[in-house]
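Q: I have 313 residues here and want to know how they pack in 3D. Can you give me a structure?
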Amino acid sequence: MVVVLNGVLADECPTSVRALLASHPGYRDAAAQLLAAAARVVPPQGLLYVGQRELAAVVPHDKNVSIIGSDDATSCIIVVVRHSGSGAVALSHLDGSGTAEAAAAMVARVQQLAVGYPEGRLELQLVGGFTDPHRYSDELFANIMLSFHRLSVEIDLLLACSCELNTALGGGAPAPLVTGAGVDVRSGELFPATFPDKGPEVPLRGARMITGGPHSAQVLDIYDNAVGMLRIGPFNYDPLRGVDLWLEQSDDFILQHLSTTPAVEPPHFVHNIRVTLRFIQQHPFPAVTVFPDNRPHYYRRDDHSGCWTPVRF
């Protein structure tokens, strides 16, 4: 029993937003406050973008990162763990794969970065997901809450802007109100955000979700705090049968068959999928052509441009 709700240790972990609000209606106000804030368009300078099935952790004094964030979370949920004393913060973009392992890894990374700060508590914030027709977000919310509840540390749930609290009904189909969030690493402020630049090697990073394979379900840590560099891979994925056929299909066919929530995907969804499919077509065996030496691809923050640039060893 380690999830703390409004300062009270929970006897039972709420596995739905409805159950959470039944006993702690104040979470509605916290979500409303986030929803009322204008979304920021975050430039690439000083940004550490975390993609789907990725996580990263940083500290306030990291000179390379000022904002950590993620977006395009329709049925997915963005998870933020922060230590209030040190300001160390971890962020992940979860879609249902590797949830328990990601929760444990986020807490472990933040605790590691908070060593030396005796004061402070672990805080949890959830953003994204909505009342989608298949209830993917509801199931994911339950798994995230249970994953943190089962850990051996106390963690305060501050925000749950998810599922029914993040759903626009209006006159049409349900849609998520907020699909992206950023965290100011120095102040700890969380805000709605979009990120036009999602960092380097986006097709490679997205290929795991489409192909499957031994690394496809893992939530990968993409930041090396010891050296202050973005780290991609190494990982492998299964060759995608019929990739040529996929690329011949219409945009609508790709949208309907490769999205869990086709009615609410952003305009760039199909374009990004096509770019990723072409990458898979060109690199069916990444262990051979992308990571031939089985080493990560590292990126360092360029002092002049503020963007990530590849490091050659």
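Q: Anything worth noting?
A: The domain at 3-304 is CATH 3.30.1330.200 (60s Ribosomal Protein L30; Chain: A;). The mean pLDDT is 94.
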